[in-house]
Amino acid sequence: MKIAMIGSGGFAQAHLEALAAEPGVEVVGHVSRTAERTEAAARRWGGRAYPTCQELLDNESVEAAWITVPPGSHGAIERCLIEHRVPFFVEKPLSADRETGEEIGRALAAQGLIAGVGYHWRAMDTMPEVRAALAERPAQLLLAAWHGSTPPPGWWRRQETSGGQMVEQATHLFDIARHLLGEATVVTATAGRHQRAAYPGLDVATTSTALIRFDSGATGAFTATCLLDGAEEVYVKLVSEGQLVTINRAGVSFERGRERRFLRLGEKPIVRENRAFLEAIRHNDDTLLFSSYRDALETHRLCFDVLEAAGG
């Protein structure tokens, strides 16, 4: 399968490394506004460097593409790929605003095109055991946190180019919550902004909270902050009758009374989600994806409902 990578940052390199181990995959092109990085990627992974998606598609036969650009750069890239009927895998979030993701979703539905989304918590190989534990003892309360430092890129600090922390980072928490507990509505949300001399131009919320109610009757409480320096905690805790399940990026712990078991993450989620995307294209079946664009739109909507409830 002839593929292209659009974007040249860390996630692009992680995908290329994972895809290098997949049989039958050939990288034919790379797209980025930074010529040096695009050319370096082409030298390392094969294919040719291009400044735009249109130039790539004018010169190469592409059967699938990966999009790993900042949130504010979505829109034109997806429209170009859809016009040329190229299936794509896009990293979250779908866009830095509500409408761009909705527009792309409508275009994809009209074309019946396969599109996967990088909500990689779904692709953790620990999820089947989580689902089994919750099937036995349904969750009544969910507690989720994304507490960390401010990412270095300048685009992350601006609401119009990142969407803010709830959209750009904590979206993983909202998505896995939906995946495990079903749909939800926002009860209330808050956003605080702390001026920081070290980050001129920062206008995203530096502390955020959201309270949501799942259709199942469970309640979810989400918190996020980018004020920390070095320390970090990212987790989802699911409270059931006599049971606590804690998910983080290293694995899952299961606690029942004095019994505690930790299940470490095995195969990298990025490997699993890429393989699922390739299989979905080969079989023209988006049910093989861990997260389709159609499903990811529900998470996108929930995140923007949170922003609006917080006055953002």
Written account of the structure:
The chain has 312 residues and is of the alpha/beta class. Helices cover 36% and strands 26% of the residues. The strands form 2 sheets. The protein has an 8-stranded mixed beta sheet, covered by helices on one side. α5 links the parallel β5 and β6. α1 (10-19) packs across α10, α5 packs antiparallel against α11 and α9 (171-181) packs across α11.
Summarize the structure.
By secondary structure, the protein is α/β, with parallel strands linked by helices.
Q: Give the helix proportion (percent range).
A: 25-40%
Tell me the number of strands. 14
Distance between the termini: 42 Å
Summarize the biggest pleated sheet: 8 strands, mixed
Taken from the alpha-carbon principal axes, the silhouette is: globular
Helix and strand run: EHEHEHEHEHEHEHHHEEEEEEEHH
Query: What is the count of helical runs?
Result: 11
Structural class: alpha/beta
Strands side by side in the biggest sheet: 8-9-10-7-11-12-13-14
Q: Roughly how many Å is the radius of gyration?
A: 20 Å
- Beta content comes to 25-35%
* Poorly predicted residue ranges: none
Q: What's the rounded overall pLDDT mean?
A: 97
